[in-house]
């Protein structure tokens, strides 16, 4: 008991220091701004980020306490017969060290192994508890996951018989098949709820784990999106531009940290190099005073500027595929024109393939090489821009 009480100050000091640091962090401040209750902040943010060092300390203290107890028992101040621990066993076996040396070696080895096992277990538990390093629960693919294999047919994206639905419920996307060649711009058009975004997010590997994703083939390059593709490769090779530029960025963080995150995380760049590249990219997409914009919060920028900031990250990461989920819907006509001009520029200069989601036929006619019309989770018609321009369409939904 005395050894346990003596260890309390170390836990109290570490807990107080961690709580003080985490309580002033940006993600806790953001949660408070959003009105998250105090208990939820503690459970979701504070405790998970305190768990790693506390678990390591707990297992280390356990190992040291075991050594201390064994030492006390060895000199006769700890456990007394008929109760035994490693220290008492070692004490009583010393008289037989020449006749039965294993009686001495056994307790000694067990003290070392138990201490090492406790600390290794602590490291493993701490790694699992750390939200930054813990493995996420992986949705079990509905088809056997296979290793990444070369595409072989020249298509960058290949989807065959994609189905997305609620487990035990209706299918929201049914039988979707499409290909996207390198450098090709393919549009998915349809009304809200037609399955465009679910199809696009399936390609990017961003479908909610609550949904069941099945397909005969679903790959980007040589990455099998039904398995467990490397997240670093996903960050480098696939870029996503969302519909609402206002919800893309964290309102409590400055633009600089958010725009350079992909470069620092997936490309391993230093902070200075990443800021220099993103500043140059912002200038290329006609953002005035780019260095100053990096020090601003998102609400200081207009919707068009925020969308162009997202496009700027695409310029510096040079992905193989851009998934643009209705990127112009929330913008006025003038800003739409500027954003589309930037997409054309990326396509022309980098040869990047693009999956463009929209319900605006005029926009996709001007930008895309092929147009796929979706209705109620299915592709009902496949068109070229010329067919759309000449109104050479056949399905009643497209004509309407």
Word description of this protein:
The protein contains 18 helices and eleven strands. The strands form two sheets. The protein has a six-stranded mixed β-sheet with strand order 7-8-9-3-10-11, sandwiched between helices. Strands 1, 2, 4, 5 and 6 form a five-stranded antiparallel β-sheet that branches. Helix 15 links the parallel strand 8 and strand 9. Helix 4 packs antiparallel against helix 6.
- SS-based structural class? alpha/beta
Tell me, rounded to a whole number, the average pLDDT: 81
- Measured by DSSP, the beta-strand proportion falls in 15-25%
| Helix content class | 40-55%
Give a topology summary.
Layout: H1 2-6, H2 8-23, H3 26-33, H4 38-74, H5 86-93, H6 102-129, E1 157-165, E2 171-180, E3 185-189, H7 196-204, E4 212-214, E5 217-220, E6 223-224, H8 231-237, E7 238-241, H9 245-248, H10 255-259, H11 261-266, H12 271-284, H13 290-294, H14 303-317, E8 321-325, H15 333-350, E9 353-358, H16 361-367, E10 370-375, E11 378-383, H17 385-389, H18 396-399
Parallel strand pairs: 3-9, 3-10, 7-8, 8-9
Antiparallel strand pairs: 1-2, 1-4, 1-5, 5-6, 10-11
Q: Characteristics of this structure?
A:
400 residues, alpha/beta, Rossmann fold, 2 domains, 6-stranded mixed sheet, 11 strands
Short précis:
The protein is of the alpha/beta class. The chain is built from 18 helices and eleven strands. Helix 3 (26-33) runs antiparallel to helix 4 (38-74).
